[in-house]
Amino acid sequence: MNHFQLAKLLKNIFFLFKKKGIYILPFSLLTYLAIFFYSPQILLYLEKQFQQKFVFFTVSEPILSLLRFSFTIFFIITFPFTYLGLISLANEFLNFKKSFFILFYFLGLLFFYLGVAFAYFLTLPYGIKFLLSFKTESLEANISLSNFVDFFSFFLLAFGLIFELPLFLALLSLLKILKPQKLTKYRREIFFFCVVFAAIITPTPDAINMSLLAIPLYILFEVGLILGKFLERINIREVDTQREPQPD
C-alpha cells in the first residue's frame, strides 16, 4: 500500500463517517442506553445460572460495572455492523468480488458468534465451577460484581475474536504476508504455541479446560490454512478496468 492509497482510504473513511455519522451515533447511543437499562436483569439471570450472588465493595462499583457490562453486550450485538465496516476497509485493498465479499462477511459473523457461544456454554461454566470448587464450610465465596463483569466480558470477547483466526490467516495469505505452504512445515511449533496460549488465557490450570481452547484453536489454524490455499487458487477479486477518458 502506497501513500496515495492510504490517503484515498482515509479520505473515504472521513466522508463515510461524515455522511453516515448522523445516523450511526444516535443509533449507537440509543442501543447502548437500552442495553444499560436492561443490564441489571441480565446480571440477575447470570446470578441464577451460575448460582452465585454478586456483591460490591465500593459505592461506585455497581454503576461502573454496569457501564462495562453494557459495552460488552453492545459490542456483541452490534458486531455485524462493526465487522461490515472492517471488511469494507479490507475490500478497499483486495477488491473482492461481490459473492466473496458476502461470503467473507457471513463467515466472519459465524466464527465470531461461535466463539462467543463456545465461551458462554463451555469455557465459562466449567471454569467458574472449577474455581468455586475450592470453597469450604469456613471459606465461602463472595464474587465481586466488578470482577465477574471483567471475567465474563474478557472471555466472551476474547473467544469471539480468537475464532476469527481462519479469516485472519486467509486475509494475510491474500495480502501475500503469509504463505500457507510454509506454515504447514511448523505444525508442531504452532500446536505447542496453541497449548501455551490456552494455558495463559483459560481461567483454570487443568488439562481439560486448556484442551477446550487449545484443540479448537489448532483446528481453526488448520481451517485457516485450507481456506488460504483455496483462495490462492481462485480469483476472488474484481478485475480493474482502465477507462479511457471520453472526448469532449
Strands, count: 2
Report the helical percentage: over 70%
* Rg computed from alpha carbons, rounded to a whole number of angstroms: 22 Å
Number of helices: 9
| SS content category | mainly alpha
What is the percentage of strand-forming residues? under 5%
Stretches where pLDDT is under 50 for at least 5 consecutive residues are 241-248
GO molecular function: proton motive force dependent protein transmembrane transporter activity
Organism: Caldimicrobium thiodismutans
GO biological process, one term: intracellular protein transmembrane transport
Transmembrane segments: 21-46, 66-90, 102-128, 148-174, 186-202, 208-227
Quick overview:
This protein folds into 2 domains: 17-134 and 143-159, no CATH class; 164-235, no CATH class. The chain is 77% helix and 2% strand.
Characterise the protein shown here:
The chain is mostly helical and 248 residues long. It folds into two domains: 17-134 and 143-159, no CATH class; 164-235, no CATH class. 77% of the residues lie in helices and 2% in strands. The protein is built from nine helices and two strands; from the N terminus they run αβαααβααααα. It has helices at residues 3-50, 61-77, 79-94, 98-132, 145-162, 165-174, 180-183, 187-201, 207-233; strands at residues 54-55, 143-144. The chain has a two-stranded parallel sheet with strand order 1-2.
